[in-house]
Amino acid sequence: MGYRIGTDVGGTFTDFILALPDGSIELFKVPTTLDDQSRGVMNGIEALASRHGLDVRSFLAQTDLVVHGTTTADNTMIEMNGAKTGLVTTQGHRDEIDIRRGYKEDIWDPSFPPPVPIARRRHRFGIPERLDFRGNVVTPLDEDAVREAVRRLRRQGIESIAVCFLFSFLNPAHEQRVKEIVLEEFPEAFLSVRHEVLPQYREYEGFSTVCLNAYVGPKVSRYVRALTGGGKKREARG
Questions:
Q1: What is the pLDDT of residues 137-194, one digit of tens each?
Q2: Among 160, 92, 65, which Cα is nearest to 120's?
Q3: Which residue among 8, 46, 145, 195 sits deepest, i.e. has the most Cβ atoms within 10 Å of its Cβ?
Q4: What's the whole-model pTM score?
């Protein structure tokens, strides 16, 4: 059995737990690098390798498992500083994310404000298409409307697009086609598609999950790319 590493990125420290081949445990921490949290993770791994007389490449070659936790997505939601998000959905359902299930945190206060929308209404587009509750096509997908919506989202400066059609968990054909069109018209956009993210029934749960994934996705993706890229660079140096 080789080394096993657990790491968790916090606001002040990045914590590590290292399980050694002999079964013993070491606890270790390094300062979190807030400008790029991946650097703190790699600093810790480099320090752990040094403590055992190894370079990073040799240390990771002898590591069987790395378990990593980060609050990147949580902090994005707490600070509400995620991607500028657009929504493409079934015509007539762009307000599903606002209506929710009719639930209101204070039912006795008529002026109680709704939560901040992840995708603002002007960035939500209803597309003529419809599946029935068995997944059969009732209204074919209007591809011209999809292209126009995607082009408008691009002009609006959208970074991330959520795609959520009714009953797509039964038949994803329309969402798959929208994904193809987005990749043609706006390939740099981050895509969050319902049948890939949460292929389950219940509309509000589907809408909210897909939109949230679109909102935090770009930041989390950048973090993961930085982490894997930093690891490769340090392995090369080792």
A1: 999 999 999 999 999 999 999 999 999 999 999 999 999 999 999 999 999 999 999 9
A2: 160
A3: 195
A4: 0.83
| Residue entry with tokens 């897909």 | 210
User: Helices marked H in the chain — which ranges?
Assistant: 37-51, 56-61, 72-79, 96-99, 143-155, 173-185, 194-197, 203-237
The residues spanned by each domain of the chain are 3-70, 79-218
Dump the DSSP string for 163-209.
EE-TTTTT--HHHHHHHHHHHHH-TTSEEEEHHHH--SS-HHHHHHH
- Rounded Cα distance, 76 and 97, in Å: 19
Q: Which fold has domain 3-70?
A: Nucleotidyltransferase; domain 5 (3.30.420)
The answer to whether 20 and 6 have CB atoms below 8 angstroms apart is: no
Convert the pLDDT of each residue in 8-58 to its tens digit.
998 889 999 999 999 999 999 999 998 888 999 999 999 999 999 999 999
